[in-house]
Design a protein that fits this description.
By secondary structure, the protein is α+β, with helices and mostly antiparallel strands. It has helices at 6-9, 13-20, 109-117, 126-130, 136-142, and strands at 2-3, 24-29, 32-45, 73-78, 82-88, 96-107, 159-164, 180-182, 199-201. It is globular, with a radius of gyration of 16 Å. Helix 3 (109-117) crosses helix 5. The two termini are 25 Å apart. Strands 1, 2, 3, 4, 5, 6, 7, 8 and 9 form a 9-stranded antiparallel β-sheet that branches. The protein binds a DNA duplex through residues 42, 44, 51-53, 60-62, 76-82, 84, 86, 99, 101, 131, 135-138, 141, 184-187, 189-190.
Amino acid sequence: MARLEREFFLQDTVTAAQELLGRYLVRTDGGETMVCRITETEAYIGAIDKACHAYGGRRTRRTETLYAAPGTAYVYLIYGMYSCLNFVTGPEDVASAVLIRGCVPVHGADAAAQRRFGVKAAEMSAYQRKNFMNGPGKLCRGLSIDRGLNALPLGSDALYLAHDLPELGLARRPDRLAFHTGKRIGIDYAGEAVDFPWRFWLDE
DNA sequence: TTCAGGATGTACT
DNA sequence: GTACATCCTGAAC
């Protein structure tokens, strides 16, 4: 099993967002381990990006995590009831991160379905199956990710990213992987940054 | 299938 | 007080 290490998160944020597609998000909670393949990401770069919480060097209690070490988890509450999961990129004191917007379960789907809908995976409706974890709030609900995990350091067992998980038959993604590029979602307030093509996703 | 509206709480002005 | 990196429901088509 090869985890993503510090060097991965020191890449340019947009590159890191693209490189996270097809990698594995591993979450252990209540003795159950759930693994998802990442299918959608967005880049947020504090220095130049009005959509980033830390735009213009804003440094508050909430945004402090964005300035933490590369690979740190940044989890915040949005619209009063949903959590969003990011991973910090770049060196300490540089505010940038990749938002995980979507993923598909590849292991522990029963545990995730229970957290998301209160049923077993096989009991999900077609509608639920389609909307399992295809959104930042949805995947956090399914994986029991909330602000309790904010500022979780790289290397934690409760939540980490992996290139592969051979023991589960999960192979490393190809070096070159076709993906789509487009504008980010839900940031209409962000001036010219609305048009930055920093959203990336896989078919599926 | 699409769409409008409401839920809900924290951060920041 | 206002805005928010969202999601779900119910109604209309």
